[in-house]
Structures are given as structure tokens and as C-alpha cells.
Amino acid sequence: MFSSLSDISGTSEFFNPTEETLSQDELQFRQNEKLKNVVRYVVEQNEFMRNYYAEHNVNVNDFRGIEDMASLPMVSKETFRKTFPLGLNCVAKEQLREMHMSSGSTGAPVVMPYTQYDLEQWAECMARCYRMAGGYPGDPVQITPTFGLFNGGFGMYHGARAADLFVVPTGSGNTERQIQMARTFKTKIIGAVISYSVRLIEVLQKMNLDLPDLKIGVFGAESVTEAMKNKIHAALGIEVFNIYGMTETGGVGTLGMDCRDHSGIHVWEDHYYLEIVDPATHLPLPDGQFGELVVTSLTREALPVIRFRTGDLTRVLSRKKCDCGRTHLKIDAISGRTDDMLIIKGVNFFPTQVEQALLEIPGVYPHYQIIIEETAGVKDIRIHVEAEEGVTGYQIEKHLKERLGFSPKGDIFKPGELPRQDGKAIRVIKKIKE
User: Fold this and answer.
1) CB contact at 8 A, 385 and 400
2) What are phi and psi of 344, to 5 degrees?
3) pLDDT class of 416 with cuts at 50, 70, 90
């Protein structure tokens, strides 16, 4: 069922023109055939999934594709943790060539194994993203995520090799050296977690330097708000792209990215089938309505997920051909996670909503902390922000009240006073008092 991927490069604005411009009818036909194949493949090759489907009275021989998707049980991170380390693997260990892993705050980590074909599939998806952003053969790309168990560094590397880019594999940390490398090798594209770009801007200002050759930022691993994108664009003068993918789907870029039209994230529908469901009822939602994203891998070999609950909240924006020429559907930027919702004094909100609101206030810096204080089961919130002199607590409180519906306590700090991280920013801190 797994054929070789094409070696496609050159100067086209598409990395793989044929696949990226398939009609919606053709995409749906292919998805239907691949769904039937991958469901049977997983049951034949994996004992856990075979038993899991039997427990839910699913006969895969009766499965007809898209029309029967709702009849299949969902899987989640908990499924990965129950089967740690390789209980969901569908191939012999001798066929595995790489693995990556992510761990949450609790439980066993999530492990994703790769065959050679899976690495090529990952590289293809990432290469499409680079080309979509304007990366062409020979362009220098600086890869700042860690090269390790986290998939970000290696995913960006595999894709850059496939796209024939010039790789500057700096990895994470040492921002002053990152800047020196970018200036020395005339970096055109930078790949990073979105919060690291804020650190980069801060150090550039401290060093009184710029990055004149930097044109493109490919940012992922964290939710990307429009306000943050605008801040980065204003400070660095670069085009900001929101790349999407997760360990369970095969890593960064596997699901897609926004194009230069910046009107939504294109999802590679020839490799993944998406559903938007109500997080509580699990029933499908119509296009345009926010819900939880559920993903099925159509072309993964070692571990294709079937109806994986991502926990990410989004909606389908469009299935029409985009102005960029791509025909794959577009989803909205991730607005939050089902497990990230905060409920304070009867108001429900997500951390991304706090960020969006804060960065709308002139003089407020993109460094903030949301402190959740819980005493005897009663929760309260403090929001600490960095801001220029002249920004008042009243301004911040008033704006948050207008946007979120409550007035949090908090303090204003001078620029540079809140803690920094070179990786993902720690935005939400929980403090429990007896």
C-alpha cells in the first residue's frame, strides 16, 4: 500500500505540483480508498488495535471509508501511554529507522517510530511547507529547535534536505551565537518555536544588530496568535508562517502550514483525513464551527493513527481553491486545547485569548505570565506583563475586562524582568495553597 515518494524539487512555487493542486473530488476519492486500506492494515498488523476494534464491535471488512468514519472508536494520547513504548507499531522492529518522543506533564511519554518510508513522507510534507513559504533550492535555513527526542529539529532538517535548502543546524539556545550564525551565513529562513522569536528580537535589540537577509519565519510547537505574528513581523520585517504537526501525526509540518495568502492553514489532505467534532458528544460539526480536531493518517507506515483526538480546537475555513493555487482545505489557527481551558469566577477562556488581548495594548511586550492561584478549591488569577513606561495597570485591566469579561489582578514589570526560556515559553503557572 505504500509506494515511493517522488523526488520533486526545482523552482516551482509548489514542491509537488500534482499533489498540491488535486481537485477536491480527486482528494476525496483518494482519501476514501486510503481510509479503507489503512484501517484494514492497522488491524492486520497490530494486535492492540485488532482487539480494540473487536471490543467496539467493529468489523473492518464492512468498513466503507468516509461514510463509516463515525463508526470507528477514537484514540488519544492515553492510548499511546497505555501501549508505551511501541504497542501501536505496525512493522517489524528491524524496519524502524528513527523515533521521536514527546512527554506531557503526567504519564508515560508518546513515542512515534519511523520506517524509511515514514521519514520520506515527513520530509515531503515539510518540503511542501518550505516551498509554500518561499524557500527555494540553496536558500539558507537556520534550524533552531533541539535535535533530539523532540521532533522539531529533525523534522525541519529532513524537510530542508528534501527541499534542497542549505541547512544551518544550530539547534536551540545561545541566542547571541544564533544571531552571529544568521549574519555569517545570510540566513533567509528561520525555523523555531514561536516564543523563541521573541527572545531573538530582544537580543537583537540589545546587540543593536539586525538580520538583513532574514525573510521568512516558520514557527510552530505553540499556538500562534495574529497579534504575535504582527509583533514579529514589525520587529524583524519577515513573513511569519504558522506550521502545524504533532508527534502523533509524524511530527512538525506533517499536517500543513498557512500559505502566503495567510488565510488559514492548508492541511495535506492526500496524507491526512480531518474531522471536526464536538469535544463533549464526539458528533461531527459543520464547516465553520469550532470543535476538536480529529486526525487519521492515510500514508504512515510504522504507526498510522486512526481517529486520533488531538485536543486542538479549530474549524474548517474553506475547501475552495486558494489564491495560492493549492486545493487542500484550510483550517483556522489553533485557538486552544480542550485541556487548556481556564475557568475563573465563572468565565471560560484560553491562554491564547489572553495573549491576543495583551498584545493589542500599545507598549505591552510579548512576555507575560498567567498565575493560577488555588486556595481550598477556589481559583483566582494574576496576570504579570512586561510593558514600557507609561502603561498602567488600569489600561491592562480595562482592556482584559472588555475582551475576556473579567478583571484580573497582576503586576507590570520592566522589559527583561520576567523569566526567559530558549525553548517553549512557560505561560501558565499554577500555585495551589492549602
Assistant:
1) no
2) -125, 120
3) confident
Cell, residue 200: 531573538
Q: What residues contact 196, with CB distance under 8 A and at least 6 apart? A: 144, 172, 422, 423
C-alpha cell at 101: 518522543
User: What grid cell was written down for 433?
Assistant: 495553597
Q: Is 390 helix (H, G, I), strand (E, B) or coil?
A: coil
8-18 in b/e form (b: 16+ CB < 10 A) is bbeeeebbbee
> Measured between alpha carbons, how far is residue 364 from residues 5, 370, 371, 402, 406 in Å?
47, 15, 18, 17, 19
With contact defined as beta carbons under 8 Å apart, do 64 and 36 qualify?
A: yes
Distance between CA atoms of residues 268 and 220, nearest Å: 16
The pTM of this model reads 0.83
Residue holding cell 504579570? Answer: 384
Please report, rounded to a whole number, the percentage of residues in the chain having pLDDT higher than 90.
68
Of 168-172, 203-207, 242-246, 416-420, the range with the lowest mean pLDDT is 416-420
